[in-house]
């Protein structure tokens, strides 16, 4: 979906396909048919943006088989879909029964992360619509915090500088400018937007910037205005933003609140949980750890890294951090010029919701994704952006 900003520039809105467990090229093609096109039809649109997730096997096929990339591009056009951004964070296995810590490997100290991301950049350059010259790729924020020492940090910085050089060369070859964005996430080396400033300044290249995920921002109790002001002062570009909402519990000391939270403590994804205290941010790696005894102070609200549907906040006594998303979006695109032109709805946890909230079948999932995109569209038009055909 495209929108005209009051300054005349185009802002792109997509939904991320990591919600669909497709890891081979054949799986991606089937996903376009079975999931993405039905969402487009529900929205009554001739064209729908998707933030494509390409796992290792799919990406490799697209760069090794000369017919694969043109074939994917034709399939996108046939189904009324377009791609300006990729999700390069998960490498493989994101549809597994247990993902947890595995999503953070390989990290940026591993050569395979560089090669995979460079391959994604080549693919994206070949998928961009004819009238679009800029693409974006979000990636993990360097590494999970453990087993990351000074040597691995320098290896990661070198890899990002090498990537920037390859992206320069790619633009010279194709005329397409691809930028890569570190996506701060709780528990990682780069947990907050502020954590991103030093490593990105050290890399020192405007092709490598930040992806502001509004669920992660909220989970870490970051104020959107402060975070974006800090990035602007440091000269760190906001390459893209993922529009998502975290799980919020206002009174986690109450037994009924803990019982409600326990329904979201599931075995597939990691749900880092945080609370703000007078001594600073406190947290656990997962929601079940927070619920176990006194692992986390409960005098103030808890927020958990669980991407809840934008249009459907959990029932009381829980809610979502949709207000943080709204505040961030106002700063991102509500000013005289957009801070980023790539927006991506990213609720990948539909099948991890408590059983009574999960969609039953493809049709209900498509309905839910379409409802999220409708909410995002309304937020954008309320900010003065005009929806384009």
Keywords:
about 400 residues, alpha/beta
Protein model, in words:
With 389 residues, the chain is α/β, with parallel strands linked by helices. It contains twelve helices and 15 strands. It has helices at residues 25-43, 56-64, 68-78, 111-127, 150-174, 193-203, 214-219, 224-234, 255-262, 287-291, 322-333, 362-382; strands at 2-4, 10-16, 48-53, 81-87, 134-139, 177-182, 208-213, 238-243, 245-249, 273-277, 280-284, 302-308, 318-320, 342-345, 386-387. It has an eight-stranded parallel beta barrel, surrounded by seven helices. The chain has a five-stranded antiparallel beta sheet with strand order 11-10-12-9-13. Helix 1 (25-43) crosses helix 2 and helix 6 runs parallel beside helix 8. The longest helix has 25 residues, at 150-174. The termini are close together. The model has no long low-confidence stretch (mean pLDDT 97).
